[in-house]
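Hey,
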Amino acid sequence: MSDYQSFVNGEFVAGSAGAVEVIDASNGEVIGTVGRSSHLDVDRAVTIARERYDEGVWRTASVRERRDVLRRIADLIRRDQEKLAALESRNAGKPIAAARGEIGAAASTFDFYSGAVDKFYGQTIPGNARGTLLTFREPIGVCAAITPWNFPMLILGWKTAPALAMGNSVVAKPAELTPLTALALAEIAIEAGLPPGVLNVVTGQGSVAGEALVMHPGVSKISFTGSTEVGAGVMAAAASGVKRVSLELGGKSANVVFADADLEACVESSVFAVYDNAGQDCCSRSRILVEREILDDFVDRFVSRARSLRMGPTSDASTEIGPLITPAQRDRVESYLQIGIDEGAKLVTGGERYGSSGNYLSPAVFTGARPGMRLVTEEIFGPVVAIIAVDGEDEAIRFANDSIYGLSGSIWTRDIGRALRVARAMETGMLSINSSSSVHIEAPFGGVKASGVGREQGMVALEHYSEYKTVFIGNE
């Protein structure tokens, strides 16, 4: 066991609002305790971050200096990849193979922005007035990065790397359940040469530390990933300070399977599109819309593959499905299994507890689902999928768009014309054709409707962590 504390101004500091145990989701064991930050602790972190910003210790660093620090962060993450993966696996209940992949992806995120920082700049603009028009891309100030428990270090990297690349200071607030790799990243950043106080991590409850961070007048930008309900509250709270906001929120993504799809490839990919991270993924394709003429064949193949997924200890490299994050989350998912049955859908397989410890549920498959069911419309955030029969392209589009969310999705067909028609018609921020991939560090990531505001990843993320400044130089 260890005692974990917040990281402010280059050193670990105890929270003044008590402490809470950090639990291994796979077996219920206590990993250690982590301090809870009060509004006073958050105020100190933001004040220091703002002081460092005003002093210019990072803001005025050259793009080459910032590039080199970000690259060293990536190198150090790779150096510590096995240790960080083990920490993420225990803290977030991830199979170790998945955790290794996510830590590697976090390193790649810092690599990408180390290479992007000197390729993002302003313009000279021809104007009617006698003189020269220039634009600069300026940092915003202190950026609050509020991250969820499902992909702790990876999503923190998505926020901190572009924010730091543009010269901002950052105060991160990881989910109280999964703060450990965020604290490790803050240490790595100092080792890489980031000045103390530029990246700070406050731990604790969202309702206390998170709220204090959102409301703090010293924060200029808020980047939040979490539920749509909490995100709406963040947006409302930020309005009073006219803070810049980006939100990556919930999803209920559709996976559209047409009769001409390569079913072998489709099923193999679609199973993991639902059950990766035990379904605790906002991009999870938890609604599968299958053209009726292949419905029975698809269901048979999908159910067979779902039953074959390996559940087990997260430390075992062969484990494919890990536990849900908490007993409460497992109970919530189980309640949706009953809701689906009560609504008239058929639970074909899964939804059973696994093992004598941990929060495991076997992958669940419902058939006979219909639009409008809670099983189909509400984000469950667990290993549950609803399979729905559709008759043709128009109905597939209508059913896919019958959601308050619009984050991700997939289309499976050999007809490229149909694929493009359906892709243009689906109301979602990201789509994959004959694939289940949502995350590409080179491309924008984010949703429409209740799935959020703004984008992460790609060059566009740098826009969200900077402001235009227009300068006119007269000839007179």
